[in-house]
Structure formats: C-alpha cells, structure tokens
C-alpha cells in the first residue's frame, strides 16, 4: 500500500539524458519506480531524512537525478541536470511503516538493461535542519556518517526490462539504522541498513498478538528472519540478523494488538515475538528474550497470517 503519489515530472532534456538519446538511436527503454518504506524504531516520534536526488549506475554509466522546483509552476520536478532551484524532499520515515511507501522515482523512463547500484543522495549537514529525529526530550540532528558526501548506496543490482516496468522498494529499517549519540554528544547517527525488494514479488506476514504477552513495561515487536527454523537473535550485524522488524500496535477500535512485517521476499521466514525491542541496540550484542518462534511461508503479492498466542498454564 502506498501513500498518495508525490508529483514528479521529467523535462524533455532530462528524459533524453535518461534514455541515452532520442528514440532514433535504437536504445531500448523501460520504466523504473523506486519507493521507500521503513520498519519503525521505539522511542522516536519522527525520523525525517532529506533527499536531494538519486544516482543510478546503469548500462550507459552513472546518471544523477535531482529534485528541483519548476520556476514557472512551483511544482517539484525531477531533473537530469543540477538545478538553480533545488527542492529537496523531507520524508518522515516513521510514517512509512506497516507496508506504507513513498515514491522516490515514479515511472521514470530510463535505459533498459542491468543496473549495478542505486545511491540515495541525502542532506545531513551539521547545524542545518535537514535530516533530524524527534525524541520525547526534543529535536536532535540526525547525522549520516559520510552520507552527505557519498550518499547511501545499495549495491544489489536489478534489471529494467525493455518496454516493461521495474518496481522496487527500499527498506530503511530504522531499528537497525538509528544509533544513540556518541558519549557526550546529543546528535543521533543514521547508519542505514538498506535492502531493496522487488515490489511485485514481495509478500508480508501479519497477525494478532495475544494481549497477555504485552505485559507492563513491554515494548513489543515481531522480528522476521530469512529461512525456516531460525533461532531468533537481536539486531547486531551478525547472523542471524532479522531481515526486518515490525512494531506491535494496539488497535484502539478493536482492542487487539496487531503487527505487519512487509516487503518480504518469497520463501520461508521465521518470526518471533519480543517484549524487549526498546533494549535492542544495533551497535551491541544484547540478550533479548524471544518467544513463539514459528516458520511462515511467504508467497508473492500475498499476506500470510500468523498469530502469537500466550502459552497455557
């Protein structure tokens, strides 16, 4: 499920640059859509990242696209050349959970073929309100080590089919990516653990969590791992690391606790529940307690159901 589309257009000059020339040169083209989603992190009220553009390394080399303001209409357009009026986009990643997405590229006509990598160009300058995080104690800068200079690079390649479409979703997973301030500091660090998923092939796992499992002081979450029968472990960069995590939220209308782990690749996944999600520091090996681990099969375009029930006495 996507949020309403952010209007983006591409000028004729930019389109020709994207395609490697006019249609007379024989270059085949396809359409590329990139969306961004997130798995939430506990404690934060907002996690805002400012994007100024995207780089793609494809058959014709590296092409950079910038978000710009059209001087005549005031609309945000996508330009294949640096612009006089930049219009960077600030996205609150916490608003993009439970399968919600926002478009970074929407139907971009580009050269067909194999693309080696994507780089997200972000703004995270010190003492500038570009990327930031809002915590209960107020707003803090969100710094991306080297990200402001080099961008956030995804090295997994993909193919844009000639005459067809390619649609991919980039998952930030803030539980893995947001790091507490360094000793004596106040600024949070964003070290994104990005993954890119074919949107058409992705599935999800969702369901209810027994209220008896959500005890006092609980920060509930469901962790999802690739493969069957995985012994669940915390987020620490070492196997087995979860491929994604999902917050467990109370549905105020029904009084039920629900979760949804979205954009999972087809195949078997292990899911497990924990009440200690807030204590999972991605920079450390934490002794997080899990329960109810189970294997669930995920199929393309479907939502598999799994319920977490409290054990009977």
Automatic annotation (TrEMBL):
The keyword Lipoprotein applies. Residues 29-192 form the DUF4382 domain. Keywords: Lipoprotein, Signal. It comes from Sulfurifustis variabilis. Pfam families: DUF4382. InterPro entries: DUF4382. This is Lipoprotein. The keyword Thylakoid does not apply. Residues 1-23 form the signal peptide.
């Amino acid at each position: 499920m996507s949020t309403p589309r952010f209007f983006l257009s591409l000028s004729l000059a930019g389109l020709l640059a994207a395609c490697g020339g006019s249609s007379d040169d024989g270059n085949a083209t396809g359409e590329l859509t990139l969306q961004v989603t997130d798995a939430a992190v506990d404690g934060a009220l907002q996690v805002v990242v400012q994007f100024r553009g995207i780089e793609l390394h494809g058959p014709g080399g590296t092409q950079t696209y910038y978000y710009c303001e059209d001087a005549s209409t005031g609309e945000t357009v996508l330009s294949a050349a640096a612009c006089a009026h930049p219009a960077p986009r600030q996205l609150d990643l916490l608003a993009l959970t439970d399968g919600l997405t926002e478009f970074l590229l929407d139907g971009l006509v580009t050269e067909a073929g194999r693309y080696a990598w994507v780089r997200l160009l972000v703004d995270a300058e010190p003492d500038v309100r570009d990327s930031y995080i809002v915590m209960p104690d107020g707003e803090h800068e969100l710094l991306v080590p080297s990200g402001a200079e080099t961008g956030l690079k995804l090295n997994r390649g993909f193919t844009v089919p000639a005459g067809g479409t390619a649609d991919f979703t980039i998952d930030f997973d803030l539980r893995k990516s947001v790091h507490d301030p360094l000793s004596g500091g106040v600024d949070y660090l964003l070290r994104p653990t990005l993954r890119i998923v074919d949107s058409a092939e992705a599935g999800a796992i969702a369901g209810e969590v027994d209220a008896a499992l959500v005890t006092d002081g609980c920060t509930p979450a469901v962790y999802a791992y690739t493969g069957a029968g995985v012994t669940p472990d915390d987020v620490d960069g070492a196997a087995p690391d979860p491929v994604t995590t999902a917050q467990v939220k109370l549905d105020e209308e029904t009084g039920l606790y629900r979760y949804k782990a979205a954009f999972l690749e087809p195949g078997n996944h292990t899911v497990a529940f924990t009440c200690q999600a807030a204590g999972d520091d991605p920079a450390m090996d934490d002794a997080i307690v899990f329960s109810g681990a189970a294997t669930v099969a995920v199929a393309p375009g479907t939502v598999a159901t799994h319920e977490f029930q409290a054990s009977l006495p």
